[in-house]
Amino acid sequence: MHEFKYLNNHLYCERVKVEDVARKHGTPLYLYSYHTLMDHFLKLKTAFKAIEPLICFSVKANSNLALLRAMVDKGAGLDIVSGGELYRALKAGCAPEKIVYASVGKTDEEIEEAIKRNILFFNVESVPELENINRIAAEQERVVNVAIRINPDVEPKTHKFISTGKLTNKFGIDFKTAEKIFKQCYDYSNVRLNGVHIHIGSQITVADPFVAAITKVVKFIEKLKKENIHLQYLNIGGGLGIIYDKETPQTAQKFAVKVLPLLAKTGLKIIMEPGRFIVGNAGILVTKVLYIKSTPLKKFVIVDAGMNDLIRPALYSAYHQILPLKKAEARGRLEKVDVVGPICESGDFLAKDRLMPKLKAGDYLAVMGSGAYGFSMSSNYNSRRRAAEVLVSKDKARVVRKREDYKDLARNERLPLFL
Ligand code: LLP
Asked: Range of 19's domain?
């Protein structure tokens, strides 16, 4: 479900004609629908109403302040993984007691800052990290909440680069070690070990990996209870998949039916960390066709957005639907093309061997499902300015990040005197 639809053969975002925004603000351009974003957030919230979880949107999926603010205003917390994301979370107005912090490599500086700012808890991923947090908390004369991130060793059935809950992945701590940590909690006097966390991967379209992981963790929590170790929080991470192509992912409602009974049984405060589910289909990348190039073997549609703008196809061979902003004639012929960017890499493509209506230079295209891990993974490679971001609500379209200019590219560089 999203609010990008054709009306009189032109693609609209809510009540705004996308081509108007593209002409006004230029391309490449990220365009987000406020109401799609809210709809997904509220669907999840409603589906889990019975246990009132704290839904901490995963900032890495899309860290634009306006989008974060929109969710925070509706009661969302935020899941962060760096000092930079902490900075953004606070700047977006998120209450620190709704911020949870994961990452296998938190630095001392990042830990210090997060403790100072009173975040809800750290998701801890190793024993040395736990010791470090305990030491830094002691220096600040504080006792901080910690959830141990468990690696439940389940197969999430997703792309191997975004699978995180197998024991071969760098994430989390195995059950045996975790149990040891909880039993030795008195060794960590500045840490309140009161939660467990799992996050088994991303773009997971079926319920069974979640059910398997949660079942294992619930058993673990029961075991701890018998040892008189009582927890407060269960963080089930993110990972819910969306439709990019022909997936049939579960709805929030269906997901809830499968996992709610397991979660409710624990009696713990439940935290969720969805990213893609909320923002994935709430954003598109708008790009313009620069050239059509035919070679003896192929036809290339060369566009002004590259892998620096959207790296998912290059990195994961990810599929993104590509739609012309102006709908092609119903009876028009389709042709097989590669949609490629201007970057000097053969991996710089948005689509390969894709059947598209006949396109010409100057046509605009929408790369669908680009709201999650789109702009947030973009870079300045080839000294390309990062794209503008525009947020639409009903008939309003507002720039929420202006396109970088050339000065931004070299802003932090210096010429040393010896040159
Ligand atoms: N919590 C933790 C600890 C995570 O590592 C992640 C994502 C999430 C929550 C949110 O997961 P989501 O609900 O969005 O699936 N760049 C990749 C996805 C990487 C996901 C990394 N971790 C992509 O473009 O597919």
From this structure: 4-31+280-410
